[in-house]
Design a protein that fits this description.
Domain Penicillin-binding protein transpeptidase: 325-559
Protein name: peptidoglycan glycosyltransferase
Domain Glycosyl transferase family: 67-228
Family: In the N-terminal section; belongs to the glycosyltransferase 51 family.
CATH class of the largest domain: Alpha Beta
Largest sheet: 7 strands, mixed
Oligomer: single chain
CATH topology of the largest domain: Beta-lactamase
Distance between the termini: 49 Å
Radius of gyration: 31 Å
Shape: elongated
Number of strands: 19
Number of helices: 21
Strand order of the largest sheet: 6-7-2-1-8-15-16
Helix content: 40-55%
InterPro entries: Beta-lactam/transpept-like (IPR012338), Glyco_trans_51 (IPR001264), Glycosyltr_51/Transpeptidase (IPR050396), Lysozyme-like_dom_sf (IPR023346), PBP_transglycosylase (IPR036950), PCN-bd_Tpept (IPR001460), TAT_signal (IPR006311)
Length: 597
């Protein structure tokens, strides 16, 4: 335990000693060697902890630190394995082991790598000196700081700090994080062999990573067990029993610099949340391990992952589909689920928030909204007759033409000829809507391009545009971050949502209501019937030339969701249209989202 205040180190003496050990003393506030709990969080590597909307830990990006484990809850065999392997004279020395130090310095000078630092020295290095020159650190800094640490902390406190700080590989810092990454259990539940394998990681965490080479990691654990026997910390009989213990390594949940205990597909959401948090924070506020409380609903996220994967697994080969993406948000833009592709471990490119694809007939939303703004109603008539534009025929998907029909019927059948005629009438208004709803700064092209969606847009932005319709014309900006806290728990960012009256009105409420009615008809009677979940829903299908992209985007009374299927290289799919698989995936996800909501 820490020494009484009257016996702790005088800071001015400490700074003077440190001035002898290093050219530039560190700030006084960082040099508190009498507080074990503070040392655990001091100068941590940069990283984020991602929490769901309910406060559940769902992922970490960068350095992953688990909750500190009190010394009393650390298994005795874990402590014994650490001491036997790393510092057998730990309980006898005063922070330095001269013989071991001499060996370590000599190995450094001769270009070889050999341990020799005590656990006390390793603790000091882990917190303050990792970026320092090895020669300066071992000859000057550690010999000064290690004895001071021993004066201020008990041996138990030093082990407590070390085991809750040290890097175990796999982005895991501290024994709790490592136990969860490698064995999916709490540190207090580690067996003798598992503890030995954890200690065996320390000299070379990547080399002995059990996810990469289980046999090598286990053999390293056997060696640590033999060291425990040599140090009289384990009997031969107990060692033999420990070596026979079954070990089950947890499936790897690490991908692209992150750890995701619920599955790596959450990595899409976690990375987007990190980007949003960074965009709203100064660089100086991105240090250490921050905690981000997000809008994620793990139940809906799991449904989105499951239904997308099931559809792709069943149809990928026969229909030439490689990728898909899903976004689900509440009506105010709070994203509750995001899947940016089929496999986050294989490909980091996010088809939900990064990829820009042609929206096809989904873009008719803006054409019909512009018509409503210009005075049309769902009952207004528009020609569905054949049309030639710029010397080229405009064809309907089914090659059928019904003459004059109501706007609502034209949208339900996704008439291309009717949409182009509407876009010709209101080209400027369509462009303005596309820009106002953050779909594209400059959609480019002529009326036909605007009507048929040959410009490019992101799934998350298109989904937010439908949310603005669901929200009676109020602007919706998708977001994933509710709160960001610094390593000490202080608030770095707290989202304060504006009152409804303060949200920018981008569509007149009556026009948004008319659009809701027309989109509901698409699901009830039109091209989106496969999306009908059995309760009120509205949405729009979209398919691009040669079936390169297939979309369904729509909403219920509670959620807005978008689904996209396609290939990263834009190769055509086989018979995949927005009213088929995307609509079916949308229906399955929405049914699960609404159930028990």
């Amino acid at each position: 335990m820490p020494m009484p205040p009257d016996q702790s180190l005088d800071r001015r003496r400490f700074l003077a000693l440190l001035g002898l050990a290093a050219a530039a003393p560190r700030p006084t506030e960082a040099l508190e060697l009498a507080d074990a709990n503070r040392l655990i969080t001091e100068n941590r590597e940069d990283g984020i902890r991602v929490l769901s909307a309910q406060g559940e830990f769902v992922g970490a990006r960068g350095a992953y630190y688990g909750p500190p484990v009190p010394f009393a809850q650390l298994p005795r065999h874990l402590i014994d394995a650490l001491v036997a392997s790393e510092d057998r004279r730990f309980y006898e020395h005063w922070g330095l082991d001269p013989r071991a130090m001499a060996r370590a310095v000599w190995s450094t000078l001769t270009g070889r790598t050999q341990g020799g630092s005590t656990l006390t020295q390793q603790t000091i290095k882990e917190i303050y000196l990792k970026e320092h020159s090895p020669i300066v650190r071992k000859l000057l800094e550690e010999p000064v700081l290690a004895p001071i640490l021993e004066l201020n902390l008990s041996k138990e406190d030093i082990l407590f700090v070390y085991l809750n700080r040290v890097f175990f590989g796999g982005s895991a810092h501290g024994i709790e994080a490592a136990a969860r990454v490698y064995f999916n259990k709490y540190a207090r539940s580690l067996s003798v062999l598992e503890s030995a394998m954890m200690v065996g990681l320390l000299p070379a965490p990547n080399r002995f990573n059990p996810h990469r080479n289980f046999e090598l990691s286990r053999d390293r654990g056997f060696r640590v067990i033999e060291q425990m026997v040599d140090a009289d910390l384990l009997t031969r009989a107990a060692a033999d029993r420990a070596k026979a213990q079954p070990v089950t390594v947890a499936p790897s949940r690490s991908a692209w610099g992150g750890f995701y205990p619920r599955g790596t597909q959450i990595g899409w959401f976690a990375r987007w949340a990190e980007n949003e948090a960074n965009a709203n924070a100064a660089p100086s506020a991105r240090k250490g391990t921050r905690t981000i409380t997000t809008t994620l609903d793990p139940r809906i996220q799991a449904a989105a992952e499951r239904h997308l994967e099931q559809a792709l697994r069943a149809n990928a080969r026969t229909r030439a589909i490689e990728e898909g993406a899903v976004v689900v948000m509440r009506l105010d833009g709070a994203v509750v689920a995001l899947v940016g592709g089929r496999d986050y471990k294989r490909k980091e490119w996010d088809h939900a928030t990064q990829a820009k694809r042609q929206p096809g007939s989904v873009a008719k939303l803006f054409v019909y909204l512009a018509a409503l703004q210009e005075g049309s109603t769902p009952e207004s008539r528009i020609s569905d007759a054949p049309l030639t534009l710029g010397g080229r025929p405009v064809r309907n998907f089914d090659d059928t033409y019904l003459g004059d029909i109501p706007l609502s019927a034209a949208l339900e059948k996704s008439s291309n000829t009717a949409a182009v005629r509407l876009a010709i009438r209101n080209t400027g208004e369509v462009r303005t809507l596309i820009e106002r709803l953050n779909i594209a700064d400059d959609p480019g092209g002529e009326a036909g391009d605007l009507a048929l969606g040959t410009y490019e847009a992101r799934l998350v932005d298109l989904t937010a545009a439908f949310a603005s319709v669901a929200n009676r014309g109020r602007m919706v900006v998708p977001y994933s971050v509710q709160r960001v806290q610094d390593p000490a728990g202080g608030e770095l960012l707290t989202r304060v949502l504006p009152a409804r009256s303060e949200i920018r009105q981008v569509l007149a409420p009556q026009q948004a209501d008319a659009m809701r009615q027309m989109l509901a008809g698409v699901v009830q009677r039109g091209t989106g019937k496969a999306a009908d979940p059995g309760f009120w829903a509205a949405g729009k299908t979209g398919t691009t030339t040669a079936n390169r992209d297939a979309w369904f985007i729509g909403f219920t009374e509670s959620y807005v969701a978008g689904v996209w299927l396609g290939n990263s290289d834009s190769k055509p799919m086989t018979g995949v249209s927005g009213g088929g698989l995307p609509a079916q995936i949308w229906r399955a996800v929405m049914t699960d989202a609404v159930r028990n909501a």
